[in-house]
Design brief:
With 495 residues, this protein is of the alpha+beta class. 43% of the residues lie in helices and 14% in strands. It is built from 20 helices and 14 strands. The strands form 4 sheets. It has a 5-stranded mixed β-sheet with strand order 5-2-1-7-6. Strands 9-8-14-13-12 form a 5-stranded antiparallel β-sheet. Strands 3-4 form a two-stranded parallel sheet. A hairpin with a 3-residue loop joins strand 13 and strand 14. Helix 3 packs across helix 5 and helix 7 packs across helix 9. It is elongated, with a radius of gyration of 29 Å.
């Protein structure tokens, strides 16, 4: 993904309603760039922060002298003396340490900026890089975060509030009474300097702020191709496939998890929600072996290639002489329906050997849109050369089990996965399926579940001493969230 997408705002598209929920950023910060800064707020900023902005060259000696005099007179620091250009330099360096060395670097940077850019460009850079608290940078990001609005939709009062919190965003946000006093001071300064009329100032001072704290996350560039439907380069805006309700749920699922977890939701082949303890790119780029979650695909291939539902296979040993781990032992022989239900490896190895392992590997390559050499015999047990991401896993389920393309073998498979859903979660939902898998001594635990409309792929990492069971609290967490995951009624039935 091209780096110029840094600073683009990402929108959901819920039934035609576009809602901002993220900013493209490879850092922790959310910084939405904009080409449009209203002249009025530029004028307000100059009057409040730096009246000699258009006459100095980055450093205002008069301003520094005035601030020093006022600070000495009052016995405390009441004025800073920094120019807008110095503030921009400080924001670009992202260094707020109160040291002499930092001040020297800031001054040098400010002079450099003045030589390189016009005054109007400096104001644009300032508003695109100024800090607004939390991890919010830039006035566009602040408008979306605090008011849920793009810049062109902000009112004068909302602009003035954003100018109010500039000098100490976290202080003013946490102390509304201080913010109100500062807001009143700013309005009075603008009135005195004829930037506001008396009537406008009076109306501004009567306002009650409706400050929000909107969902706004930083999303890595590498994730954008997986969620993007349309890119508007003029407005620096990306319309995504994300559903805001599902996105909110996936974020909550991760935040409430006992262990590191990643989750992705796919509807009709499109990502509608995703989150991870390891960053927004993790569900797409992190790849690993996926254990028994490949067995449903294998089941359908075996059924379509002559393996009957009654044919028994050895469930204790396999003809390939592989030493494989079984979670439980049941009958000495199982058919593939029983093997899928109990996740028995030996039965699947024996059945696969009968139909030809090379044929199965070609099938897997088709399912995951990979080269054939990316799969080898142990792929029957969930291993691949380069691994599979939870995005690829969820997408494969979503596309393979699409309702309008269900063969008899797929219906059989889904019926078994529905039984697994009930047995593991204790919840009866006619159209729901579940398949789990574990790898790396249970340190990676997978679950793929869903219904004909929506597929979730989940990966939980790590395995602590107090959670030694095969699936442990992972299944408990999923069970607790089933009402949120399946809140939409689906009329379609497999049988």
């Amino acid at each position: 993904m091209e780096k110029e997408l840094d600073g683009y705002v990402i929108y959901t598209n819920d039934k035609g309603k576009e809602i901002p929920y993220g900013v493209v950023s490879d850092s922790y910060n959310c910084n939405a760039k904009t080409n449009y800064i209203p002249n009025q707020i530029k004028n307000f900023l100059v009057e409040i922060e730096d009246r000699r902005f258009y006459s100095h060259r980055g450093i205002d000696i008069k301003g520094i002298s005035r601030a020093l005099f006022e600070n000495v007179k009052s016995g405390k620091i009441t004025q800073g003396g920094s120019t807008i250009t110095q503030q921009l330099a400080r924001n670009l360096m992202q260094d707020n340490r109160k040291t002499l060395l930092r001040k020297i670097k800031e001054t040098r940077k400010a002079i450099q900026i003045e030589k390189q850019y016009s005054k109007e460009k400096i104001l644009d850079l300032y508003f695109n890089n100024v800090y607004f608290g939390k991890n919010i940078w830039g006035i566009r990001t602040a408008g979306i975060y605090y008011f849920g609005k793009e810049i062109e939709n902000l009112t004068q009062i909302e602009f003035l509030y954003l100018l109010t919190i500039l000098r100490g965003p976290n202080l003013y946000i946490e102390n509304p009474e201080l913010a109100i006093k500062r807001y009143e001071t700013i309005n009075n300064i603008l009135l005195e300097r004829k930037q506001l009329s008396k009537n406008k100032c009076r109306r501004n001072l009567k306002v009650t702020f409706n400050i929000q704290s909107n969902l706004l996350i930083n999303i890595k560039n590498i994730s954008i191709p997986f969620i993007s439907e349309r890119v508007d380069n003029k407005q620096k805006k990306i319309i995504s496939t994300i559903d805001s309700d599902i996105q909110r749920f996936t974020k909550q699922f991760v935040s409430e998890s006992k262990y590191p977890v990643s989750i992705i939701a796919i509807r009709q082949g499109k990502v509608v929600g995703f989150s991870s303890s390891y960053g927004t790119d993790y569900p797409f780029i992190s790849k690993s072996n996926v254990g028994s979650t490949l067995k449903p695909f294998l089941y359908c291939f075996l059924r379509d290639n002559g393996i009957s539902i009654k044919e028994p296979f050895d469930s204790y040993r396999n003809e390939l002489s592989w030493n494989v781990r079984e979670v439980k032992y049941y009958k000495s022989q199982l058919n593939i329906q029983e093997a899928l239900r109990y996740s028995n490896n030996n039965t699947f190895l024996n059945a696969s050997n009968k139909v030809g392992i090379e044929n199965i590997l070609k099938f897997f390559a088709t399912i995951f849109n990979r080269q054939e050499n990316d799969f080898f015999p142990s792929s029957i047990l969930g291993a691949t050369k380069s691994g599979i991401s939870i995005y690829e896993l969820g997408l494969a389920y979503s596309q393979f089990f699409t309702p309008n393309n269900l063969t008899d073998s797929k219906k059989e498979c889904l019926s078994i996965l529905n039984k697994i859903f009930y047995e593991k979660l204790g919840i009866k939902i006619k159209n729901a399926f579940l398949k789990t898998g574990t790898t790396n001594n249970n340190k990676e635990r997978y679950a793929v579940l869903g219904n004909p409309e929506l597929t979730y792929a989940i990966l939980r990492n790590e395995n602590q001493i107090d959670d030694g069971s095969k699936e442990g609290s992972f299944i408990t967490q999923i069970k607790k969230n089933i009402p949120k995951m399946f809140k939409q009624k689906v009329g379609y039935k497999w049988t």
